[in-house]
Amino acid sequence: MEAIEVKDLRKTYGHTNAVDGVTFTVHAGETFGITGRNGAGKTTTAECVIGLRRADGGSVRVLGEDPARRRRALAQRIGAQLQESALPERMKVAEALRAFASFYHRPADWREVMERWGLTSLARKAYGDLSGGQKQRLMLALALVGDPEVVVLDELTTGLDPVARRETWRLVRELKTSGTTVVLVSHYFDETEALCDRLAVLAGGRIRAMGTPAEIIAQTGTSCLEEAYFALEGADR
Question: What's the CATH fold of domain 2-77+150-236?
Answer without folding.
Answer: Rossmann fold (3.40.50)
